[in-house]
Amino acid sequence: MDIIVLIKQVPETSDVKMDKDTGTMIREGVASVINPLDLYAIETGIMLKEQHGGCVTVCTMGPPAAAKALKEAIAMGCDEGVLITDKKFAGADTWATSYTLAAAIKQLGEFDLILAGERATDGDTGQVGPGIAAWLNVPLATYVSKIESLSADSIIIERLVEEGYQGLQLPLPALLTVVKEVSTPRLPTLRGKKKARAYTLRAMSASDLAVDEAKIGLKGSPTKVVKIGYPKVTRGGVVVKAAGEQGLSNAVDSLLEFLQEKKLV
Amino acid sequence: MAYVWTMAEQSHGRLREVSFELLSRGRKLADKLDTKLCSLVFGSGLSDDTLQELVHRGADEVYVVDDARLDKFVVETHSNVLADLVQRYKPHTILAAATSSGRTLMPHVAVKVNAGLTADCTELDIEEDTKLLLQTRPAIGGNIMATIKSPIHWPQMATVRPKSSRPLPLDLNRIGNITRIAMFDAHYDERVKVLGLRPYDEGLAGIEESDVVIVGGKGMKKAENFGMLRDLARHFGGVIGGTRDAVDRGWLSYPHQIGLSGKTISPKLYICAGVSGSIQHLAGIKTSECIVAINQDPDANIFQVADFGIVGNLFEVVPLLNAKLGTCKKEGK
Ligand SMILES: Cc1cc2nc3c(=O)[nH]c(=O)nc-3n(C[C@H](O)[C@H](O)[C@H](O)COP(=O)(O)OP(=O)(O)OC[C@H]3O[C@@H](n4cnc5c(N)ncnc54)[C@H](O)[C@@H]3O)c2cc1C
Ligand SMILES: Nc1ncnc2c1ncn2[C@@H]1O[C@H](COP(=O)(O)O)[C@@H](O)[C@H]1O
């Protein structure tokens, strides 16, 4: 089983603080981490390898500093790491990113399964996985919450849709984007960390890939961000205290009034 | 001028509400462009009467690719059909709902037709001089709003967050054509098999499409206590959800999780109890129309975003609220 896991390095969000007055994010000292939703993809890849044998290759397209994310994935148990990095890739939107990653995957040769996160917490689009499946013309399942079974030539999964869990059978090779329910990510072990430190990542640049330079990076991206706005976080709503029996009753009454005014009840 | 298309969604011969929400978005754009609005429906078993509602809710044209092989969503086949229609009819804009199928189909098609795509938009407009689609969406967990355009690639494509717009009122006087078209056999991709659907427990289906969502956090203390939130949800005809802490403790199943690593919702009314308002949770609720919070800690972050907050013990506030809602109903208020 040859498995490719796609990860992205994103700004850490768990300690993001918002400036209450301006509604902007305080970015000072914000570290970079593996996109938290990609940890489920990494864990799934390692688990499947443990059950079925094979090799897990973790790939990221990003700046040289993204090497740290790959090393972390190797410390968790991935076998190989590929850093797709080049100034020419910078500023890519999801279309150009999926094009570049698809080209890199072709370069890596035969594979059985590609695993990606459901979405990255910075761009938050969830478009890269489906885009790669389209470029490579491999069957796709998004929102995968469970791997039911895996054989040499097909995989049965469940995916989360609006009405419930949908079961799908896909022939291999296939691409899955996974949600949190699919696995519980392990922590890197000491041995894993040692291995990661000694490991030399494979690097790929634009010239290593058979890519059309008009389709990569900012230049190759159909979409352009034209404006950034900062919505005010604070809504300035009413806050009442429910202290004591009377206070409690008054608070609930004023909530009901508020809801009636808004025609919500 | 090329048309504006919106993708209708159906299941078991019924149109989903998002189909109508998209038409109200599309109507505004088509009017600004002075062009027609067309609703696309994939699947069989929809009667003309059912399809007429798309016209009554704003469509000028309804195209139905009427084939049972499209009844269940399988991205490969749907993508083949849509990409072909795009190449043949060259629409100006395509809008789909940011649902599990819309968010899977659109990026797949965008690659095939060589077009830009913006995910999960909450505002759409047409730029006066260029006639380009201005697509505004929350990013970085809702902390910024980015406006995006696709200046040289066509069609303009976007997915739209469910519940971020309201359907237009029914206008029975509107007329429009319903055209049924056949699917090419070559577009049918047999590789992926749909094995079946295991429905959620009752009350969860469509949490993203629900008008009212009641959320419990760690402050709920244990699973049994969610009974009072279910009562509250029943009053409003809503559904219940939870923070990651509530889900990780096993009080609710994962499909209930709201936030960064769960679902993004935009209900008319969101009420939470025992939720602190972490940045990751807020990422999933910021576009809610009205936010009500009950928390005993006056400094809880959730009060920053609340339209109405009660500082108090949820185990006192929620039961009293339920009781009073009961009386309100009885008195017929
Ligand atoms: C990568 C990442 C992804 C994440 N994704 C999500 C996500 O998708 N969704 C999500 O929700 N979280 C997510 N989190 C977790 C998030 O950071 C918070 O830990 C979580 O939202 C807190 O849940 P909570 O509000 O239920 O619990 P707490 O923060 O512990 O808050 C409990 C609140 O209950 C109040 N309370 C207690 N008792 C009572 C009482 N009797 N009456 C009234 N109030 C009471 C307390 O004052 C407190 O404010 C994520 C974190 C990370 C790092
Ligand atoms: N630059 C990248 N390098 C590798 N994988 C990526 C990259 N960007 C996105 N992905 C993968 O695609 C998923 C969805 O990302 P996005 O479409 O940006 O929300 C992520 O969870 C990753 O698995």
Protein traits:
heterodimer, A: 265 residues, alpha/beta, Rossmann fold, 2 domains, nine-stranded mixed β-sheet, two-stranded antiparallel sheet, 29% strand, globular, B: 333 residues, seven-stranded parallel β-sheet, five-stranded parallel β-sheet, 18 strands, binds flavin-adenine dinucleotide, binds adenosine monophosphate
In short:
Helices cover 29% and strands 29% of the residues of chain A.
Largest sheet of chain A: 9 strands, mixed
Mean pLDDT across all amino acids of chain A: 93
Bound molecules: flavin-adenine dinucleotide, adenosine monophosphate
Ends of chain B: how far apart?
51 Å
Number of domains of chain B: 2
How does the overall form of chain A come out from the CA principal axes? Answer: globular
In CATH, the architecture of the largest domain in chain A is: 3-Layer(aba) Sandwich
Strand order of the largest sheet of chain A: 11-10-9-12-8-1-6-7-13
Please give the oligomerization state of what you see: heterodimer
**Number of E strands of chain B:** 18
Q: State the name of the first-level CATH class of the largest domain in chain B.
A: Alpha Beta
- What's the CATH architecture name of the largest domain in chain B? 3-Layer(aba) Sandwich
Based on secondary structure, the structural category of chain B is: alpha/beta
Question: Greatest chain-chain interface?
Answer: A-B, 89 and 95 residues
Enumerate the spans of chain A where pLDDT stays under 50 for 5 or more consecutive residues: none
